[in-house]
Amino acid sequence: MAPYLQEQTASATPSTDTIKVKASTQVTPTKPLVYEPGRTIAETHENYPHDHLLPTFPDLKWAPLTEHTYSDKGLLGSPSFSSLLATATSIRDYNPKVGTEITGIDLANLSSEQKNDIARLISTRGVVFFRNQKNFDIQAQRELGKYFGELHRHATTSVPKQQGLEDVHVVFAEGSRGARNHVFSPSFLWHSDVSITLSFFSTLKEKHELTEKKR
User: Fold this and answer.
1) Sheet of strand 90-93: strand arrangement
2) For residue range 19-73, what is the model confidence (pLDDT) as tens digits?
3) Strand, helix or coil for residue 7
4) Within 10 A of 199 (CB to CB), how many other CB atoms are there?
5) Rounded to an integer, what distance in angstroms lies between the CA atom of residue 39 and that of residue 183?
6) Is 185 a domain residue?
7) Of the N and C termini of the chain, which has fewer Cβ atoms inside 10 Å?
8) Helix or strand run (H / E) with residue 146
9) Residue at a domain's end among 136, 169, 186
């Protein structure tokens, strides 16, 4: 009989080495996962490190908007994004049409050429994610946003507790209020509608994630 057609025989009692390998690869969940479609369980934020950015609704009054000069920085960017990619460690598209992720870029320390490449890349891909930012605090975010245009002040939504940040748009869900995904559709929850403006504004978004390590 050909070798590959021979029946394989196995010992009725597995060896000690086999038992040890199987035992080491078994993983028993410590706590079963709980999942309800469309419902996000919001974390509590006691001792929240970004307390100064929590939302408030002060009584603010701004002067009417006026027209201002706008320069599209993406027109100055390289079609190959050469300056931006010179310091990147990886880049990948989420799908062929929209969404790109880049690692190795420090958004707090960019040259003008790299900023122009970012504007062009966002114009091309719709949304771009920059992971693992270490020194990109709220002021650094605002400074980067100002490079692309005048910062936008939303007329109806919350602003941070810290004064002077009225051009920062706060998206926040806390405690029992949660994200209320069971009440509102995702298209209603995640939108930002305002009246038409005279000129373009710069918008920069960052998501703060808190990860609590369990011992």
Assistant:
1) 90-93, 100-103, 128-130
2) 444 444 555 657 777 667 766 665 666 777 888 888 888 888 888 878 878 889 9
3) coil
4) 12
5) 9
6) yes
7) C
8) helix 138-148
9) 136
Q: Treating both helix axes as pointing N-terminal to C-terminal, what angle do 112-125 and 138-148 enclose, rounded to 10 degrees?
A: 80
How many structural domains is the chain composed of? 2
Cα–Cα dist 160/168, whole Å: 7
Cα(109)–Cα(97) distance, integer angstroms: 29
Containing domain of residue 107, as a range? Answer: 71-136
Asked if residue 131 and residue 101 are part of one domain, the reply reads yes
Residue-wise pLDDT tens digits, 85-132: 999 999 999 999 999 999 999 999 999 999 999 999 999 999 999 988
CA dist., res. 1 & res. 14, Å (int):
27
Give the number of other CB atoms < 10 A from CB of residue 147: 15
Which residue shows structure tokens 């559709």? 185
